[in-house]
């Protein structure tokens, strides 16, 4: 079981949905992207009803333009302590393969990602 001690070197995340809605959370540096997705899913913010997903397994975090794989911990990202780090939260079934030249996938994601780049 994860022991969440929010004030013990907590990592502050501000998660942004594609719709632009945001919510702040505090995690432990030992929490992985999978842990974060599960926590957000279990504590879905009140204003996010329209974006509710059916399973935490499709929630993905994007940090500095890159998808975080599930086993990456916040501590491994060397985030500045005490500062709020902004990440995007998107629903995707699968992560793009690092070496794949999925032309079809790229065209599909261009539409949904247009709003993240502004």
TrEMBL record:
GO CC aspect terms: plasma membrane
Region (Disordered) residue spans: 94-113
Ranges for domain Ubiquitin-like: 11-89
Identification of the protein by name: Ubiquitin-like protein
Main location group: membrane
InterPro entries (UniProt xref): MUB, Ubiquitin-like_dom, Ubiquitin-like_domsf, UBL3-like, UBL3-like_ubiquitin_dom, UBL3_Ubl_met
Location(s), subcellular: Cell membrane
Keywords recorded for this protein, A-Z: Cell membrane, Lipoprotein, Membrane, Methylation, Palmitate, Prenylation
Membrane topology qualifier: Lipid-anchor
UniProt KW Lipoprotein keyword: yes
